[in-house]
Amino acid sequence: MKHFFRFLAFPAFLLLLLLLILYGVKNSSSLTRSIPPNWPKLVMLDPQLPVPDLPVYTLHGEKISLKEVVKGWTLLNIWRVDCPPCQQEFPILNDLHKLYREKGFQVVGVNKGEPRETVKNFLMKKPVSFPIYLDLEENLSSALDIYLVPTSFLIRPDGNIFAEIFGVQEW
Question: Is this prediction's pTM over 0.85?
Fold first, then answer.
């Protein structure tokens, strides 16, 4: 019986997370000002999109495929140092990652087009426990049609993106 409840705990968490996002989208007053008021804050993707097989870079300059980075349930967050809402969301994402990484859920941050040193300097002042990668040429941002940051994507273990989230969330 104990194993049955453990089996249900993580799917229940994901359902609760999705419901909180939907509730927050409906009732949030802390969304970024850069998002037009008539835009949806959460978009369920149908059909779902596979994670693009595009390169991202580590903070040490190593090139790696995004598909290698995304494992299991993932919240992929696209952000910039010069984005105050992104900075506001970072501690929230860090707490989310710490709380659920042992259960197979990870947060992955991808910086959109800023120089490596800019990102490293920012992370020295505001360290996080989740992995950060760089989209230096903005190939990923272009492939996912990212125009506003922060933008996040919920990704299933099969590598399919099933939801896109615009703006700061109170996870």
Answer: no
Task: Name the phi and psi angles at 46, rounded to 5.
Answer: -145, 110
Print pLDDT tens along the chain (171 aa): 555 555 556 665 665 555 445 444 433 333 333 445 555 477 777 777 899 999 999 999 999 999 999 989 999 999 999 999 999 999 999 999 999 999 999 999 999 999 999 999 999 999 999 999 999 999 999 999 998 899 999 999 999 999 998 888 776
Q: Which of 65, 51, 58 is nearest to 131 (CA)?
A: 58
CA distances from 136 to 34, 97, 125 (A): 22, 24, 21
Dist. CA 65–CA 79, nearest whole Å: 18
The values of phi and psi at residue 74, to 5°, are -140, 140
